[in-house]
Structure formats: C-alpha cells, structure tokens
Specification:
The complex is a heterodimer of chains A (188) and B (93).
Chain A: H1 2-24, H2 28-48, H3 52-77, H4 90-107, H5 119-122, H6 125-136, H7 141-149, H8 151-187
Helix pairs in contact in A: 1-2, 2-3, 6-7, 7-8
Chain B: H1 2-22, H2 26-51, H3 56-80
Classes of the chains: A mainly alpha (188), B mainly alpha (93).
Chain lengths: 188, 93
C-alpha cells in the first residue's frame, strides 16, 4: 500500500509541475509535446486506480490523436504564441479561488474511496452483475450496460462523435480539395 | 524489489520531465518525451505486476505503440513543417 501511495505522490507532483510549466511555455510545439507527457502521466494515474479502460482512452486520445491534431493545426497556424499584455486581473483570481474553495468543501461530502457500501456500488451495479446475463444475453457485463441498459445514451454518444467526425472531415478535407482543383487547372 | 524498481522508474520519469521542461533544443525535449513514454510503459508493467493482473500488459503494449505514433508525428512535423500535404501528383507521401 505504501508503494502505491509513493507512485500516487510522484505522479500527482508530475501533473502539478507540468501544468504550471505549460502555462509558461511560449513555444507551441514544445507545449504540444509536454501535453503528451501530461496525458501519459494522468493515464498512469488511472492505471493506479485500476481504471484500465479510462487509461486506455486517455492515452489514445490525449497522447495519440490530440497531439497529431494539434500538430496539424500548428502546421497551418504557426508555432509561436501571440504575445499578450500581462497585467494583474482581480476578478478571475476571485472566481478561481471561490471555485477551488467550493470544490475542496465538496470533497468532504464524497464517500470514502473504494468502499463496498458506496452508493455507486449498491445502486444498480448488483442488478447488472446478477441479472445482465439473463436479461440481455450478453456475456460481458460492461458491454451489456453500454449496449443495452444505456443504449440510448450510447446512441447519443455515437451521434455526437459522428457529427464531430463530419465536422473534422469537412474542415480538413476542404483544403486538400482546393489544392487538387488548383493543380488540375494548372495541368490543363 | 518491486519498490526499488518503482522508485528507479519514478526518478527516471522526474529526470525526463526536468529535461523536457529545461531542454534547450527541441531534440532534448523529443528525447525526453520519448523516454517518458517508455518509462510509462515500464510503470504500467510494474503496476500489472503489483496488482497481479496480466491483462494490464496489453495496455502497456498499446502505450508503446501510441508513444511511437506520437513521436513519428512530432518528428515529421519537425522535419517537414507539416504532417504531409496533398500529394503533388495525386500520390500520398
């Protein structure tokens, strides 16, 4: 248990250091690469919490595709951050402090971590574990929850992802088509 | 034994972060981030050993691949200034 705590402390310190550093970095290519480190660190934290699927997604999206998307954006927009005038602003500081204090206050009411009598463990989970094989005929419990019990939810997610995919395809595909059109006219 | 290995990996990770943040040239940062990805793979392998779950090793494999893909993207960007353009003669490069 001691060792798990040690890993937790290291990884959380990494996250804090990287976050502060990211705020101060002006070179956007460096920022993108350090985002990759941030993502790998938080994915490791999810692994420590035994949330393998979340860690999987975090690594694939955070360290994989979003880095590539950001690099593709940098290729179009340029590498340097626009210089903004730095001055002390009171209102954002107050808002952030209040939000942080509220979150810290809210932590007190959270159920203890990983206890079997937590609401998350006693609400619908026993039904899924005991009845899902009978009710849905799907051997994998997670799949039965995603595809059957929360089918509409999953349908909504698929619609959102599909819409996002169309948007990205329109944005990225357009440039290529314009280029080929230009080249076609040159060849004529 | 596992504690010593975990400590060594965590220290190596911190050193890689220091190099990634300080690194004067872009190559230092690329190397540091590649090293950090490798150390993440090792840390996950270690967590798999600690938890006694062999299926975590698959995730370590996926991480190794993601690390590789990200590194290729960064290097390609650095070499060409873009992630590949529309092929000049209709062929992808």
């Amino acid at each position: 248990m001691m060792l798990a705590h040690l890993i937790d402390i290291f990884l959380l310190v990494f996250l804090a250091v990287i976050s502060v550093a990211l705020l101060r970095i002006k070179d956007l290519l460096t920022a993108v690469m350090i985002f990759g480190i941030y993502s790998l660190t938080s994915a490791s934290l999810f692994m420590v919490l035994a949330a393998a699927d979340v860690a999987f997604t975090e690594a694939a999206v955070g360290a994989g595709i979003s880095i590539i998307l950001m690099l593709a954006t940098l290729a179009i927009t340029g590498r340097e951050e626009k210089i903004v005038e730095r001055k002390f602003k009171l209102l954002p500081l107050i808002i952030v402090s209040i939000t942080g204090a509220t979150l810290l206050y809210g932590i007190r009411d959270l159920p203890p971590f990983g206890v079997a009598s937590n609401p998350a463990q006693v609400h619908v989970a026993p039904r899924y574990i005991e009845q899902s094989a009978v009710e849905t005929d799907i051997p994998n419990i997670v799949t039965s929850v995603l595809a059957s019990y929360r089918g509409f939810d999953t349908l909504g997610e698929v619609v959102v992802i599909f819409t996002a995919g169309i948007g990205v395809a329109l944005l990225i595909g357009r440039r290529r088509r314009l280029l080929t059109a230009k080249e076609a006219s040159r060849h004529e | 034994m596992i504690a010593a290995a975990a400590l060594a990996i965590l220290v190596a990770m911190s050193l890689a972060i220091v190099r990634a943040l300080l690194g004067p040239t872009i190559y230092d940062r690329i190397l540091a981030i590649n090293l950090f990805g490798t150390k993440t793979v090792m840390l996950i392998t270690l967590i798999a050993a600690m938890a006694g779950r062999a299926d975590y090793l698959d995730i370590a494999l996926v991480y190794a691949m993601i690390n590789f893909i990200g590194m290729i993207a960064v290097l390609k960007f650095f070499e060409y200034g873009s992630l590949g353009h529309a092929g000049s003669d209709g062929q992808e490069d």
